[in-house]
Amino acid sequence: MALSDLTVADCWAYRPDLTVPEDLDAFWGRTLGAASAAAATYEPVDTGLTQIHTFSVTVPGYGGEPVHGWLHLPANATEPLACVVEYLGYGRGRGLPHEKLFWASAGFAHLIMDTRGQGWSAAPGGTADAHRYPAGTVPGFLTRGVTSPDDFYYRRLITDAVRFAQAAQEHPAVDPDRVVVTGISQGGGLSLAVAALFPGVAAAMPDVPFLCDFPRAVRVATEGPYGEVAEYLALHRDQSSQVFRTLSYVDAAVLAPGATAPALFSIAMMDRICPPSTCFAAYHRYGGDKEVRVYEFNDHEGGEAHQQLEQLAWLRKLFGR
Fold first, then answer.
1. pTM over 0.85
2. Structural class in CATH, domain 8-315
3. What region holds the Acetyl xylan esterase domain (predicted)?
C-alpha cells in the first residue's frame, strides 16, 4: 500500500469551501418532520447466550416503512444504560444476532440498525427499501434517485438512522442522556449526519467515514462506492451540477457544523475507499468538541479492534464511569 491522497500534514491543512444548499435546514426539517413517530417494537430472540439478552427490533423509518435491527442488553443490568447505536458499512446487513457483542459485553445497550435494501456482502440484511428495491439488491446506492434530493436513497437512509437514535432514547432500559452513535465507513457517515440532525445525541464516534466531501471523494477515491457517481456522470455528461447538488444535502461534511455532541473520529491515511482528506474535511467542520485517531499505515480497515478500545476508554471518560 501507499498514499493515494494527501499527506497527514496536508490533510490537517485541507479545509474545503463546500457548497451548502440554501434550503438545507428546511429540507431536513421537512423530511424528519414527516417521519413516523410510531413506537419501535422488540421481540426476544433465543441466541443460546446467557449473559446478553437480544431482541429483534423493528423501527418505523422513512415513510413509516419497517426497518429491522438488533438490540443487545447485558443480562445483569439493573439501571438505565448508556446506549451505542451502530450503523453499518456499505453492503452490510444486520447479520446474525450473536455477531456483534462487544458493547453489551462492556455494559452498554447496543442497538444495531439494518440498512434498507443492502445486505449483499459480509452480513445479510432483512430490510427492503420499499420505495423501489428489495433487500439484498446489489449496488449502487449512490446513484439511486441522485438527480433529486427528494428521491435520493440516502434521504431515506439518514431518516432511518435518526429514527433509530430516537428509538434508543425512548427505550426503558436506556438512559436518554447517554445515546451514542457510531459506525464504520457508511455507518460513520450516518453517525455524523445523525449527530448533526438529532440534538438528543450525547456523542458520536465515526470511523473512516463515508459520505464526506463528495466533490473531492468522487474525483480521488480509487476503489469503492464513490466510483458509482463517476461512472454515472461518465454516461450522463450533462448532469454533473444536478448530481452534486443532490449529494450536498446528504454530505456529512456539509452537515457536520450542525453537530454539538463531542466526537471521536478515526481516519486511515492509506484509505483508498474513503480518502483521508475527505474524512478530515468532515472532522475540521464538525461543530462539537472533537478528537481524532489517525492510522498512518492502514487502508479502509482503519483501527479495527484497536479503535474499539480507544472508543471504550473515551466513552468511559466522557460519561464518568
1. yes
2. alpha beta
3. 1-317
